[in-house]
Design brief:
Elements: H1 14-50, H2 56-63, H3 70-81, H4 88-122
Helix pairs in contact: 1-3, 1-4, 2-4, 3-4
Length: 123
């Protein structure tokens, strides 16, 4: 006696995983782009009181914080132009996380470098 029950087709989670990875990548790249806009004004007002020439890296970060807005654009480009389409969202996420880490290090280094250079003179 054979039963007439059909097995439902397997659920494919590929699109959902891709969407989640893209949302996370975009959020990470937006964080990379926005936090210089939050931190730089506080440091820029402090640097105005120093009355010394700022190092090159610090000047670039203070005068052009909009350069960090390249992170969301580059993340989208990595996603769209990655040759292995099934893994494009994964590599976009990895790129966004890497750009977040690199930009955090660069931002901390650039904003605190003048303070560290003036410490021996003050001490």
């Amino acid at each position: 006696m054979a039963s007439n029950t059909s097995v439902p087709p397997p659920v494919r989670h590929g699109r959902a995983k891709t969407a989640i990875m893209l949302v996370c990548a975009f959020c990470a790249s937006l964080l990379t782009a926005t936090w210089p806009s939050l931190a730089v004004p506080h440091f820029a007002s402090m640097y105005a009181n120093f009355d010394v020439a700022l190092p090159f890296v610090t000047r670039i970060v203070v005068e052009h914080p909009e350069l960090f807005w390249m992170a969301p654009i580059l993340t989208l480009l990595v996603w769209r132009l990655w040759p292995d389409r099934p893994r494009a969202a994964l590599f976009a996420l990895l790129f966004a996380i890497a750009s977040l880490c690199v930009s955090a290090g660069l931002l901390i280094f650039a904003l605190y470098l003048p303070i560290f250079q003036l410490a021996p003179a003050a001490g």
